[in-house]
Design brief:
The protein is of the alpha+beta class. It has a single domain, classed as 2,3-Dihydroxybiphenyl 1,2-Dioxygenase, domain 1 (Roll), CATH 3.10.180.10. Helices cover about 20% and strands about 45% of the residues.
Amino acid sequence: MPRISYLDFSAEDPERAVNFYNKVFGWQINKWEGPMEYWEIKTGEANELGIDGGLSKRDRIGQWITPFINVTSADQYTSKIEAGGGRIIQPKTAIPGIGYTLLFKDTESNTIGLFEENKNAK
């Protein structure tokens, strides 16, 4: 059964948000060395209950926190989402060397992401 594995935060001022979450919660936040402006958030140790996340610059109004669900095949879930009444709002997109993501709206207009790990993604 696919599980929520990641939370993606958005911020008007990413540096301000990084400082806030680090100061308030002690999260370890590091700028990602990938092709986009992104920060990786480590909220605790692997043996502790909880999930990690990331942070990006907010590029549209109404963008908040997006949960990501780990799946083995984003393509397989695209048809399930649409058959269940959901709507794909960002098609499968490669994150080079990491995997693939896609975003969808559920039947209640919540934005949710899928993540498919694939080190060969280009």
